[in-house]
Amino acid sequence: MSQQTISEVEQLIKTKPVFVASKTYCPYCSATKKLINEIYPEAYILELDTIEDGSEIQDALAKITGQRTVPNVFIKGKHIGGNSDLQALGKDKIKSLIG
Fold first, then answer.
1. What pLDDT shows up at residue 1?
2. d(Cα 11, Cα 53) in Å, to the nearest integer?
3. pLDDT tens, position by position, 34-57
4. CA distances (Å), 28 to each of 4, 73, 76, 95, 99, in order?
5. Tell me: the pLDDT tens digits for 1-16?
6. CATH number at residue 85
7. What is the domain extent for residue 67?
8. Residue 33 binned pLDDT confidence (cut-offs 50, 70, 90)
């Protein structure tokens, strides 16, 4: 994984109010996307299994966060975690985090 990929991922985390790294076939990702879409439909969702450098981006996310699994959720630059972490927050807390 290149330093450029790490920098690009860090830039997405910083600049996108809601950023989700996902895979199209993952049921946990689907649950995350459903919840996020109800709250913030403008979320930036990257489907790692549909892009050429998806595995490299996943490696960069693992290096940045220590989490290798998807979904990998960020709100306002803060790492939330995966689906269970997001669901545990609940809609009201997620809305307050987004602002």
1. 81
2. 16
3. 999 999 999 999 999 999 999 999
4. 28, 12, 21, 20, 24
5. 899 999 999 999 999 9
6. 3.40.30.10
7. 3-98
8. very high
- Rounded to the nearest 10 degrees, what angle do helices 83-98 and 27-39 cross at? 10
Give the torsion sign (CA, 77, 16, 98, 67): negative
- Both tokens of residue 6? 């790490």
Least confidently predicted of 1-5, 57-61, 91-95: 1-5
Tell me, letter by letter, the H, E, C secondary structure of 41-94: CCCEEEEHHHCCCHHHHHHHHHHHHCCCCCCEEEECCEEEECHHHHHHHHHHHH
In our burial notation (b when 16+ CB lie closer than 10 A, e otherwise), range 63-95 reads eebebebbbbbbbeeebbbbbeebeebeeeebe
- Paired sense of beta strands 78-81 and 72-75, if any: antiparallel
Q: Give the count of domains, the chain.
A: 1
47: its two tokens: 């489907």
